[in-house]
C-alpha cells in the first residue's frame, strides 16, 4: 500500500519510464525499417499478428453459383434445400413461379440468414447477392455456410452429400410430368423438346395407383417392380445390363392400359414419350427420334399390333418392299442394343388389345420384362370405383352392392363401362341403379352372344363332320355308332351319312 502523499512521485516515475520505453521502441522500429527489407518485414508482421490473435472457432464455406462456366451443383442444391428450412423469423423472401411450375418457388433474400441443425450441429446459411460491377456483368450470388471448425469433416462427409440427395428428391416431388408427342400442336416447350422432334405439354392425367381399379396383388407387384427398378442402378451396372425395363400391357379396350401408364408416370415422375409408329418413315428416322428422348422417361407405343404391319418383317428386311416404312427388327434392335448404351432409367411400354396377334419376336423372354394382363372389372374393382366416383368408402356398403357384385363377376364388363355408369348421377342410389340396369342388359346381350357362338360352333362342327364323312364316303370306310357298325355305302346321301356320323361323334 502506498500513501496518498507518495502518489505523484510514483506516477511521474511510471510516466518517465513509459516515455523512455516508447522512445527506444520508436528508435528500434526506425532502425528495423532501415535494416530489414520490406518483404521480410511484412512476413514478420503477419506472423506476429497470427501468433497474438485469438484462434477463430468457426469455419465459413463460400458456395458460389458458378464454378467456371458451369453451375455449381452445391449452390443449386442448397437453394432448393433452404426453401424447406425457412423459419418464422426470416424477414425477407423471394417468390417466383414460371408458367410451367405447379407451385410458388420461395427463396431467401439477400442478407438473410437461415439456421439449420444436422446431427446436433448448428449450421448458419447466409445468402449474398452482389450487384454487377457494370452493365455487362451479371450479379454474383453465393451462400456462406458457417459452423464450428471441429465439425468440418462431418459437414463435408455427411451434411453436404445429404443436401444434394434432399434437393434431388425435392426436385422430383416438385417436377411436373410432361407428355411428349411428335409435332405436338399445343407444345409449351420453348423451342420444342428433343431438338424440335418432340413437343410437350404437362401431363394432366389424374390417374394414380390409388384410382386404378385392378387386382390389388397385381397392383402391388407393379409398384414394387417399379421401386426395385429405380433403386437398382448399381445392380444393372454390376451385371452389365442396360438400365431399362419393358412392360407389355394387354387387354380389351377400356380396361385401363393407358391409365396405368399415366399412373406409372405420375408415381415415378417420369416424362412420357408417346410414339406413333405410323409417323415413322424408316429405321434411321426411328433411331433419331428415340435418341432425342431423355433419361427417366417412359416411351409408350400404343396398339403395337395395329401400328405397323409387323408380319412382313422378313420381307422388309430383305428390301423386297422398296417403300417400306420401318421394320420390327429396327425397333427391336433399338430396344436391345442402341438404346441400351445411351440411356439410363428408361421404361418402354407397349400396349395391345390382342396379345395373340403380336409377333413372337416381341414376346420372346427378355424382350418385354413384364407382361401385364389388364382384365375386366371384378367386384373388388367395382368397390374401388364406387369409392372414387361416389364416395362410398371402404367398409361401407349399399343395398344394391350384392346384386351388382354378382352381376359384375358373371359379366364381362370393363372398368371404363362401370365408370361411365357411375358418372351418370351424383346421387349414389341413382348411379348404382343405372349400373345394375346396365349390367342386366349386358348379361342378356352376352347370353344372346353365347347362344350365337354356340350355333356358330355347331355349324362349324357340322362342316367338319361333313368333311370327315365326305372323305369316308370317298374311301368307302365304315362308320361306327355306339360300338355298332353303321353302313356308309356309296350312293347314300351326304346328309343322312352326316347325321349318323354326328351321332357317332357326339353320342
Ligand atoms: N382399371 C381402371 N381403373 C380406373 N378407371 C379405369 C380403368 N380402366 C379404365 N378406366 C376409365 O376408363 C377410361 C378409359 O380407360 P383407358 O384409356 O385407360 O383404357 P385402355 O385400356 O387404354 O383402352 P384402349 O385399349 O381403348 O386404349 C379411363 O380414363 C378411366 O376413366
Ligand atoms: Mg389406351
TrEMBL record:
InterPro entries: AAA+_ATPase, AAA_N_dom, At3g28540-like_C, ATPase_AAA_core, ATPase_AAA_CS, Mitochondrial_chaperone_BCS1, P-loop_NTPase. It comes from Quercus lobata (Valley oak). It comes from the Eukaryota. This is AAA+ ATPase domain-containing protein. One of its GO terms (molecular function) is ATP binding. Keywords: ATP-binding, Hydrolase, Magnesium, Nucleotide-binding. It catalyses: ATP + H2O = ADP + phosphate + H(+). Residues 243-378 form the AAA+ ATPase domain.
